[in-house]
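ok, trying the design again with the full structure, not the truncated one.
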């Protein structure tokens, strides 16, 4: 009934609830039109010509785009078997490095970093007396079930150089409403809010986000079902002798036995949309989202048919 009013620029009830959940000062909560906007705002605040951005190769492409738009130098560290190499990143940090983005789980590979690795990484930066802002993008965190995976949200209150990004677009299923949030220090949040558009999140998005935060049973259900279906797909890919990357997200990166563009077109004809990770150094790989069993069966059926056709043509 209030839809004719402008939305609150910084809805106190939503920020307070997020702060309560994660145990941080609500003034350190930032809200965005999806985490894409927050990434853009962060790069605009911390990067400019003469500063450098440190990222992992094959991490979310928006980090690099933001750095380039800001005129910063981009330092890309190669991955180790599709995994972010934190040890090497720690050694590549320079005096002019103002910002580091780390997606955990990684998008688009699905690999994750154990919490112990992150602690070691932060300790190494402390030893080197380097203090860039480190942004952990946890867009797919709710899907991660590995025992040694842990959110970095608990680090925010004790380390002003750490920020965490979360989204309602993935496991919450609210991508169309565009709502993301960040956890950071009040000082960093203030810098970002100074350049943030005043009405960047809508009333429906704010209301939906507040309600979604209370629906723990839904998140648990989706996480468990995704894990079950992911294991099912692993088994089917193994039967077809197709290489894939074990994932802690809701997608699987795999390597078909033919040209990825032709493969994608054949899958589309079969009613299945898969995506070659364009813009990444992953030639020959395809990413598919883990769906419900009915969807996954359609995918496997199409995949099997394509392989059979390839065998006949050979």
């Amino acid at each position: 009934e209030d839809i004719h009013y402008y939305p609150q620029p910084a809805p106190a009830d939503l920020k307070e609830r997020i702060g309560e959940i994660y145990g941080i000062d609500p003034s350190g909560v930032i809200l965005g039109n999806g985490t894409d906007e927050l990434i853009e705002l962060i790069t605009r605040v911390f990067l400019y010509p003469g500063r450098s951005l440190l990222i992992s190769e094959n991490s979310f492409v928006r980090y690099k785009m933001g750095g380039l738009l800001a005129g910063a130098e981009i330092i890309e560290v190669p991955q180790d078997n599709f995994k972010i190499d934190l040890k090497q990143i720690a050694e590549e940090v320079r005096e002019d490095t103002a910002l580091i983005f780390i997606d955990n789980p990684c998008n688009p590979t699905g690999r994750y970093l154990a919490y112990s690795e992150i602690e070691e990484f932060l300790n190494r930066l402390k030893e080197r007396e380097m203090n860039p802002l480190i942004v952990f993008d946890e867009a797919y965190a709710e899907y991660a079930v590995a025992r040694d995976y842990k959110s970095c949200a608990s680090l925010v209150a004790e380390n002003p150089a750490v920020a965490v990004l979360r989204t309602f677009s993935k496991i919450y299923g609210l991508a169309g409403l565009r709502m993301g949030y960040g956890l950071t220090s009040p000082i960093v949040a203030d810098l970002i809010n100074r350049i943030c558009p005043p009405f960047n999140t809508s009333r429906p998005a704010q209301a939906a986000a507040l309600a979604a935060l209370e629906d723990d049973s839904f998140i648990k259900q989706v996480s468990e079902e995704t894990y079950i279906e992911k294991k099912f797909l692993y088994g089917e890919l193994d039967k077809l002798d197709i290489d894939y990357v074990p994932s802690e997200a809701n997608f699987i990166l795999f390597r078909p036995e033919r040209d990825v563009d032709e493969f994608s077109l054949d899958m589309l004809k079969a009613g299945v949309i898969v995506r070659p990770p364009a813009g990444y150094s992953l030639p020959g790989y395809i990413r598919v989202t883990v769906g419900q069993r009915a969807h996954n069966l359609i995918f496997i059926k199409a995949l099997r048919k394509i392989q059979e056709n390839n065998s006949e043509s050979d």
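Keeping the full-length input from now on. The first helix runs from residue 12 to 22.
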